[in-house]
Specification:
By secondary structure, the protein is an alpha/beta fold. It folds into 2 domains: 171 residues, 3-Layer(aba) Sandwich (Rossmann fold); 52 residues, Helix Hairpins (Orthogonal Bundle), CATH 1.10.287. It contains 8 helices and 8 strands; from the N terminus they run H-E-E-E-H-E-H-E-H-H-H-E-H-E-E-H. Helix 3 links the parallel strand 4 and strand 5. Helix 1 crosses helix 2, helix 2 runs parallel beside helix 8 and helix 4 crosses helix 6. The longest helix is centred in the N-terminal third of the chain and has 20 residues. The protein is globular, with a radius of gyration of 22 Å.
């Protein structure tokens, strides 16, 4: 109980209890509101602590399974904090702008990521110098900058993420909708103007204050890192000549012609 009280005190000090004006309140968050003061909704921090604990459990389990968690936060108040949090646990992130299809059309997005990797590799190896004129390299350089801006944070993704952590799901609603469409769970740091029905695990705090966002992100990334300590990668399956996997014991899978 003392730990919960300590977290409540820290949330209170960070200003996490201040929601938006009552007129901006989304109907789905009504049960998370303690009351209103001078027209501003006050968030029930006791419920917020419970939400943080639920979110930490989800992130801990994701770490234990070695899942890829995509961190999303493109608004000014959140972008740098999201970048720092994602890098701390070596996870992909989107902090500049969400490109439509990053989840729902990942096969096409992956082509852009591969293009970025190829150009960066050629630049670092000096191959661009050998293959292209100075004018062509300027054009390619601009392409690299644009690709880096849009996809630099997700270069490590080779498949769609298994979870999304988003700061302000209202601001990054397209990311949340794509995750919903793909049945990917969403943990959301959100305020009283957001739709809680669109996310799997809401954490209700002031999502316009950097102090509030930073506190919750620290709690979540710490939980993921703790879970990751227990992660044991699955051993690679032995492969027979020709590239086909063997069954346990080294014998190839048999097929039967049933007629």
């Amino acid at each position: 109980m003392s730990e919960n009280n300590n977290l409540i005190d820290r949330l209170f000090s960070a200003g996490a209890h201040f929601g938006f004006s009552k007129s901006r309140r989304h109907h789905s968050v009504k049960s998370f509101i303690f009351g209103s003061k001078q027209g501003t909704d006050i968030i029930d921090l006791e419920q917020t602590v419970e939400q943080i604990e639920a979110a930490k459990k989800v992130l801990f389990e994701a770490g234990e399974k070695g899942q890829n968690v995509l961190f999303v936060g493109t608004k000014d108040e959140a972008s740098k904090l999201v970048l720092t949090a994602a890098e701390a646990v070596e996870m992909p992130y989107v902090t500049n702008r969400w490109i439509g299809g990053m989840i729902t059309n990942f096969s096409e997005i992956k082509k852009r990521i591969e293009r970025l990797k190829t150009l960066v590799g050629e630049r670092e190896s000096g191959e661009l110098e050998r293959k292209y004129t100075k004018k062509e390299r300027v054009v390619i350089g601009r392409e690299v900058d644009k690709l880096t801006f849009n996809f630099g944070g997700i270069q490590t993704l080779d498949r769609t993420p298994q979870m999304v952590v988003v700061v302000d799901p209202r601001h990054d609603s397209i990311a949340v909708q794509e995750a919903n469409d793909a049945n990917i769970p969403v943990v959301a740091i959100m305020s009283t103007d957001g739709d809680a029905t669109k996310v799997t695990t809401p954490v209700m705090v002031n999502d316009a204050l950097t102090s509030s966002i930073e506190l919750v992100l620290a709690e979540l990334t710490e939980a993921y890192a703790e879970g990751k300590k227990n992660y044991v990668p699955a051993p690679a399956r032995p492969r027979r000549e020709g590239g086909r996997p063997r069954r346990e014991g080294g014998r190839p899978r048999r097929t039967f012609d049933r007629r």
